[in-house]
Amino acid sequence: MLQAKKILLAVTGSIAAYKAATLVRLLVKERAEVKVIMTKAATDFIPALTMATLSKNKVLTDLYEEDTWANHVVLGRWADVMLIAPASCNSIAKMANGLCDNLLMAVYLSATSPVIIAPAMDEDMWHHPSCKKNIETLAGYGNIILPVENGELASGLQGEGRMQEPENIIEYLKSYFQIKNDLQGKHVLISAGPTQEALDPVRYLTNHSTGKMGIALAKECYSRGAIVTMVLGPVNEKVPEHINIIPVVSAAQMYEACIAHFAKTDIAIMCAAVADYTPVETASEKIKKKENIFTIECVKTKDILKKLGEMKTAKQVLAGFALETENETANAIKKLDNKNADFIILNSLRDEGAGFGSSTNKISIFGKGNQSFSFEKKMKEAAATDIINIITKK
Length: 394
Ligand code: C5P
Description:
Layout: E1 6-11, H1 17-29, E2 33-38, H2 40-45, H3 48-55, E3 64-65, E4 68-69, H4 72-78, E5 81-87, H5 89-97, H6 103-110, E6 115-119, H7 123-127, H8 129-140, E7 144-145, E8 149-152, E9 158-162, H9 166-180, E10 187-192, E11 197-200, E12 203-205, H10 212-223, E13 227-232, E14 244-247, H11 251-262, E15 267-270, E16 277-279, E17 298-300, H12 304-311, E18 317-324, H13 328-338, E19 343-348, E20 360-361, E21 363-367, E22 371-374, E23 378-379, H14 380-393
Parallel strand pairs: 1-2, 1-5, 5-6, 6-7, 10-13, 10-15, 13-14, 15-18, 18-19
Antiparallel strand pairs: 3-4, 8-9, 11-12, 16-17, 19-21, 20-23, 21-22
């Protein structure tokens, strides 16, 4: 399971650093490719020479080596996973606040790979509100935090704060890589962003959607092995090039594109903020200013999610979003039935840090058969992981 996986092990200054040697040995035994970076404090607990010998790779500790710059960006891009074990209280605080005063921090901040953190510290430090807050911040950034163990601590006290045993971390990595491929070869269709409904050649009706949530979902599905197609309204966000984009402007174009791609789709997630109404007529010339009151006659757009719900076969999974301002749960559950969706993801505009524009979201997921799942506010990338975890369980 870990064969040929590229693991960048980052070791910080904690007494648990001695366990990092076992970790390297077990990773190598699993035929993973291991590179190790260490903070200066970590080398006080375990020599870099030990880690270099076990990993069969040079160990980096400094941003500069013999007058040459250590390329931290390359390391963070090389890895399939950056594993920070043990992660000391001090390093966790630096990571949560974006400090960059050593090689390990520079690699962490520039890493494009997922990051798994195995904290290790004394119980009282672990329970300090500042540490709790830092851990929450890191989890909110989409980092995976491994739980600490309860047991004998370096201080001689008993309690929470011990780093996970290396064997457990290896088991976690194995199941992580298994999950990482759980959408291998599946076709995923995602609608995202706003639509623009033209009034005349220069004006349109639209909304504040930025497409961030849909793009986060597309990235998550791609990283789990899916072939992803996005039907994307006009947005400023950048989309990774390996995602197949079908750019659209209006609700009618989005409808046509989604319907056309649905037959070969295994999972469809309708995340777009589609206009509910479109002007009956689009003027061919710019509308002139005349009367005091200007009325736009509109007609309902076609409901894409509802149509896909009618077309859906037993093998396909369909999810939609509900952005509500009142009676949130009741409205979301109603939508599940009305649109024959398998899941409705609710975000309430009443929750701070949820919905349009923001980088975070606070979601609840409702599934057929009275299933419901609630999540804390987190970065949209982490919310996307939660959503796909639930959908793939079906
Ligand atoms: O009915 P309502 O617009 O509240 O439902 C929201 C869900 O339906 C979202 O998943 C949205 O993408 C989808 N939708 C759609 N086509 C429409 C309107 C909404 O697919 N015309």
